[in-house]
Design brief:
Elements: H1 4-7, H2 13-22, E1 30-33, E2 36-39, H3 47-55, H4 58-90, H5 108-132, H6 147-168, H7 171-198, H8 212-216, H9 229-243, H10 245-250
Antiparallel strand pairs: 1-2
């Protein structure tokens, strides 16, 4: 709606822009990536996977992986049910299965369809980028639009986990639900304290999977905007004022 150039050909021009930006090559330089250096014009296939794994909060990564596992299990169950249904319609004997799928819930097909759409929304952009060998640099900032989707998936997963445990009614389930709530609150407090500590350079943060910022230092792109240089120069200025004042005043 706010893109006049695309409105002139709304089905064609967004794809033209996507193709051109996927081949954007004006920022060729070397970057640290684990134990080696890579070029912005030829990032490895796991570039985005590593950055999302190391830059998202740990609890978000764990819940998204768990949600992907649940989605896969439901997809396999739906496929098994479809096989059974086809066999019944044709009057054929049911295919042998180690574990017959449980009966489908009333909204399961709709839920799997919604989950499939979310999986497509998450996977298509990075997979397209990998297939096109698009230039990538400065961490995951080109794919920040995926962070809200990951956050929603993680939030829904956590909510369903807590509600599912609470609904069971057993002591162990209630303890599990209370523990999940306490863990989530503790995680939020920890993240808040970390962001206050890093302010105004919150984007420098890396999670514990890579050893936080000390673990990522010199191994991944951290301060790619150079914002902390200002504080570094101020510290150097104060030090020189105290130790080499005459030289400091005479030099540039």
């Amino acid at each position: 709606v706010l893109w006049p150039w695309a409105q002139l050909a709304p089905l064609r021009r967004p794809l033209i822009a996507l193709a051109r930006m996927s081949a954007f090559n004006l920022h060729e330089r070397g970057m640290p990536f684990g134990d080696r250096r890579i070029s912005t014009l030829s990032p490895p296939p796991d570039y985005l996977l590593r950055y999302f794994t190391f830059k998202l909060p740990e609890i978000t990564v764990i819940l998204v992986v768990a949600a992907a596992g649940v989605f896969t299990v439901r997809l396999v169950r739906m496929r098994k049910r479809a096989k059974l249904e086809r066999a019944r319609r044709r009057g054929e004997p049911a295919p042998k299965m180690k574990r017959p799928p449980p009966p489908a819930g009333p909204d399961e097909r709709r839920r799997v369809a919604v989950a499939g759409f979310l999986a497509f929304a998450i996977l298509f952009p990075p997979l397209y980028t990998i297939a096109k060998r698009s230039p990538l640099y400065d961490g995951l900032r080109h794919f920040l639009f995926l962070v809200p989707i990951f956050t929603v998936v993680a939030a829904v997963s956590l909510t369903k986990l807590i509600r599912g445990l609470s609904a069971r009614g057993t002591l162990a389930a209630r303890v599990g639900a209370a523990s999940a709530r306490a863990l989530f609150i503790a995680h939020c407090v920890r993240m808040t304290l970390l962001m206050v500590h890093l302010h105004p350079h919150q984007y420098l943060w890396f999670n514990a999977f890579v050893g936080e910022l000390p673990g990522a230092y010199l191994r991944y792109s951290t301060d790619y905007y150079g914002n902390t240089y200002k504080e570094g120069f101020e510290t150097l200025r104060d030090y020189l004022w105290e130790t080499e004042r005459e030289r400091y005043l005479e030099g540039p």
